[in-house]
Amino acid sequence: MSPRPSDWRSRCPRCLALASLALALAACALPDRQFISDSEFDQGGGGGGGSRENCTNGVDDDFDTKIDCADPDCSPAFTCVPELPAGWDGPIALSQAKAGAAPPRCDAAIGYQPVTKYEGGLKLNLNAGELGCPNCSCALDPKSAQCIGKVEYRRNSCTEVNSLPLEVGAACAPMPITTSQIGGPPTVAQLVSTYVKGAGSCQVTEIKGPNPQAPSFTDQARLCKAPLPAGGGCERAFACGAVPKPPFLEELCIVKVGEQACPLGFGDKHLTYSGLADQRSCQACSCSRTSPAALSCSGQIQEYSSAVSCTGPMAQLDLNVCERLTDGSGSGQFNRHAQLKATFKADCGAPSGGGVTGSLTAVVASTICCYAPGQ
Q: Alpha-carbon distance 227 to 113, whole Å?
């Protein structure tokens, strides 16, 4: 009859001590293996061993014969990336943040470190700003010509032969009328014609444009140095590394100062910019003509009852309209004031200018190339 377990433990204490020593030595011989409980093994965690795969140590931790990136347990959080090309810095995690907003932090707990020397604006979202260039127009220089109105005063009606012709300009001026020329004070007047005095010249006018706004980048690049991929399970010259998580692009990148061509395999290219070279200016306004074509004028004459100024409106004279004057008193010298309110027509040609000339260019700070399989 075979002894019960309790029997051999009590009868052979040296056997129990030797068994414990053998187990301890076995554990020391496998320092990289993690022994788990039966309950953990039943839940799974890899292929055959039940241990969780460490995707960066080059070891088959879960005993499923697949190492790191070759193990489905490491996907999609880890990926194979080419070795760092000579002359490039990396690997880099890249994010885009709105200018003025707090950029995402480089999490030191996962080995991220900031690399500000490569950061800058992103041309993709460049706001060109507004120069505030004026709008241009061409018109007659009001000082270069005068509009003159010819007025005829008569005693009783505009059909009478005897008339007193006078000229009225834009300036307020006295209108001395000698009543003896028409047999008494005038009671009617008529504006019979207008003409332009002087050749006239064209002048350009600049109309205020939009308020100027400085150009700027609406987005800024934030870069974090990521741990160097060291895992296995990849082809030769590749290593298994952690894929950055949002708000970073889910790609591992490399970076180099200045504008560069991206190495093979790193086909997702981004440029950062350290500033803007603004060589823009507003074009000067001009007119296609210096002298107007088809210059003419029209207007109305306002008569005033005052003998000393243009106050007390008395009558308004329109072209070829006989107007009755309300003041028909007096004799001899008949004093009043008048002025012509004129409108000119002048063809000064089409305006030009007012547009933007020159260029706005962004100064390259660095080139960022992210690993994109197949590119």
A: 9
